[in-house]
Amino acid sequence: MAASRPTPARIRITGRMLNRLIVWAPWTWPAIRGPMRRFFDRTAPGWDDRTSAGSVDHLAALAGALLYVKPAPERALEIGTGTGEGALLIAREFPQARVRGVDISERMIEAAVAKVGLDPEGRIAFRVADAADLPYDDESFDLIAHLNMPPFIAESARVLRANGYVVVASSWGAATPFYTPRSALDWGFAKRGIEPIAAGEASAGTYWVGRKPPKPE
User: Fold this and answer.
1) How far is 2 from 103, CA to CA, in rounded Å?
2) Is 177 helix (H, G, I), strand (E, B) or coil?
3) Does 98 fall in a domain?
4) CA angle 150, 184, 66 (to 5 degrees)
5) ∠ CA(107), CA(23), CA(2), 5° rounding?
6) By the 8 A CB rule, do 164 and 74 touch?
7) With 76 labelled, which of 33, 87, 112, 141 sits at a CA distance of 20 to 30 A?
8) Nearest to 22 by CA among 199, 206, 180, 211
9) From the DSSP assignment, how many helices (H) and strands (E) are in the chain?
10) Is residue 177 part of a domain?
11) 184 assigned to some structural domain
12) CA dihedral 87, 24, 173, 73 (to 10 degrees)
């Protein structure tokens, strides 16, 4: 989900604490889930205006990461899609892909759905879902993206296909409340068999890209 800049210190510190729990102690998520859902339901109205979600700066880090995703994915998922701006960017960058966005907040998903309008082919779709228990089969996606979100490493690895990519992008780098250092991403995803292939900066943001190796023949 998007983060404004500058981010108030209280929000940044709280977000960083929650982020560390999700990355290093994922078993604490059931205790965090309810308060986090209520927070984002409450703040969903006017979210884009307050945070500049969808702006060039907001999306620059994700756009930079997507340059490493080759070939183009057939199916992509944005976890913690918020009002859907990250998923919509992915859909623009990969016009042949079917793109899904999930978020724990029903109000955020309502805002995302309103942006899609009529889509009879269902190429872009949003739904309420828990990132720790995704409603998708194993190896369903070629691309998993997190924008300003704690990475849900185990579930990302489960639904990612061989040769698929994981992206973790932070619009404001270390000033983003839900920011995960590169070292933690390298360590956490390596445990699930996903190898880091790129990391860098774009505008004020940072990104990390990992890839699941092909299956042995």
Assistant:
1) 13
2) coil
3) yes
4) 60
5) 35
6) no
7) 33
8) 180
9) 8, 7
10) yes
11) yes
12) -30
Whether residue 2 lies inside any domain: the answer is no
Q: How far apart are CA 24 and CA 181, in angstroms?
A: 12
- pTM as predicted: 0.90
Cα(10)–Cα(101) distance, integer angstroms: 28
- Dist. CA 196–CA 189, nearest whole Å: 8
Q: What domain count does the chain have?
A: 1
CATH code where residue 84 lies: 3.40.50.150
8-64 pLDDT per residue, tens: 666 667 777 787 788 878 888 889 899 989 999 999 999 999 888 999 999 999 999
| Structural domain of 157 | 9-211
pLDDT digits (tens, 9 = 90+) for 76-134: 999 999 999 999 999 999 999 999 999 999 999 999 999 987 565 679 999 999 999 99
Order of strands, edge to edge, in the sheet holding 195-202?
124-128, 98-103, 75-79, 141-147, 160-170, 205-211, 195-202
Residue 163, token pair as written in the block: 């040769």
